[in-house]
Amino acid sequence: MRSILRPTGRRAVISLAGAVALGVSAAAVATSANAAGSSSGGAKAPWTRACDAPAPGMAACHALKVTNVSQKVKALGVTPNATPSGLGPADLLSAYNLPADGGAGQTIAIVDAYNDPNAEADMNTYRAQYGLPACTSASGCFKQVNQKGGSKLPRNNSGWAGEISLDLDMVSAIAPKAHIILVEASTASMTNLGTAVNTAVSMGAKFVSNSYGGGESSSDTSYDSTYFNHPGVAITVSSGDGAYGVEYPAASKNVTAVGGTALKRDSSTRGWSESVWYTKAGEGAGSGCSAYDSKPSWQKDTGCSNRTVADVSAVADPATGVAVYQTYGGTGWAVYGGTSASSPIIASVYALAGTPSAAVPAADAYAHTSALNDVTTGSNGTCSPSYLCTGGTGYDGPTGLGTPNGLAAFTG
Question: Which residue from 51, 59, 56, 130 is spatially nearest to 90, judged by alpha carbons?
Answer without folding.
Answer: 130
